Each structure stands twice: as C-alpha cells, then as structure tokens.
Amino acid sequence: MKTNKNTFLYKNGLSIVVVSLFVLFLSCQLITGWHVKNDELSEVKLPSLSLTQYISSPHFMQATFENWESEFLQMCMYVVLTVSLRQKGSAESKSLTEKEDVDREPVAHKNAPLPVKKGGVILSLYNHSLSISLGILFILSFIFHFIGSLNNYNEEQIEKHLATLGWKDYIINSQFWFESFQNWQSEFLAVASLVILSIWFREKGSPQSKPVDAAYDEN
Q1: Are residues 61 and 41 in the same domain?
Q2: How far apart are CA 201 and CA 4, in angstroms?
Q3: pLDDT (tens digit per residue) in 48-84
Q4: Residue ranges of the alpha helices (H) in the chain?
Q5: Domain presence at residue 217
Q6: 6, 75: one domain
Q7: CB 103 within 8 A of CB 48
Q8: From CA 204, how far away is CA 195, in angstroms rounded?
Q9: Burial level of 66, CB count in 10 A (0-12/13-18/19+)?
Q10: What angle do CA 68, 73, 76 make, to 5 degrees?
Q11: 212 near 204, Cβ under 8 Å?
Q12: pTM higher than 0.70, yes or no?
C-alpha cells in the first residue's frame, strides 16, 4: 500500500502527533491534579474545587509552568551549545572538522524568508530567532511558575494557619528553587543521554540517529 505524500497528514504528521500527545497528557495532568488537590482540601476539611476552578488554581499553574520552564530552558541551551560545542561520534553534534550547511551565510533568493531579503538588523535578529524565541518562552514560563508556586505555597500556609510570604521572600525560598532544579537537572540528563547514547546506538530511519552502519567515531 503506497502512502500519499501530498496529504496534509503526511506532510505534518510529526507535529500533529506530538501536539496531540501534549494535549492528551496535559488533560491527564489536569484530571489527576484536580483529584490530588481535592484530596488535600478534604484532609483539612475545606470544600473541594470544581474542574473549572482547578484550571485557574495556583496548584495547576505551578505544576504546569514548572515543567514548561525546564523544557524551554533545555531546548534553548541545547540550540545555543550545539553551535560551537562538539561531541565526537554523536549524531547530535556537528562535524569536528568540516563546515556544516547551517554555518553558511544566508543568501537572499526568491523563496528565502522575509528577514533574509530585508537584511541588516532584522537579519541579525533572525540569525538567532530560534534561541531568542525559546529564551522568551523560558522567561515567561519561569515567571508564571513563580507566580503559581508563590500563590500555591501561600494557600497551603493559610490552610495550615501559618504565615504567608511576599514575593521578595519567596524568591529566595528553597521550595521554589527545589521545584526548578529538580526539573532542570532531569532535562539535561535526558539531553546528555541522547548525545552520548547516539555515539553507539542507532534507530534506523530517525534523523536523531546516525546511519546504522556508521562508525562509532563518525559524526
């Protein structure tokens, strides 16, 4: 059976599947987090939240952006680090000796992106637009994580009849940084695993892998 390579699904299958999995697992997080929060409220004899109320709660906000923050940090750093750093034998690294196509200077042509045609400052920014956009997403996620974490912490303090904290005190609180660091370290562990394991192991047909018959020290 032949695959029609002109269909929308074929041309966009990777993004469709990845976004669908994101929506699926975010929905699962929402439902399970809702039950966890209501169990916590039940323990302190407080009324439970509806699903709609939970969506806008600090509990859900903190948990969601805590993870997004680490993902965008990892991707931003990985994009930037792979510009100049190398790993012998890794499918994730540029060649140790040869020039790569991604290093060539952009040339304006009929189908080139608009910033390339414009040149100047616009092109200079466009040269780094991927890392810039990921960096902005990291900063926004970091801010929303902090807001959600602060409000969630203070809600729990109120439930326990304890003192709350302002943002200046909470920014140096170990709770917030524990939430961040436990995710940051896991993201860079995952990246390191892919970089190092791709030296020796293969996945036929994947652009994240070297050809199956490639030598171990070949980039």
Answers
A1: no
A2: 31
A3: 999 999 999 999 999 999 999 999 999 999 999 999 9
A4: 8-11, 13-43, 51-55, 58-84, 114-118, 120-126, 129-159, 167-170, 174-200
A5: no
A6: no
A7: no
A8: 16
A9: buried
A10: 120
A11: yes
A12: yes
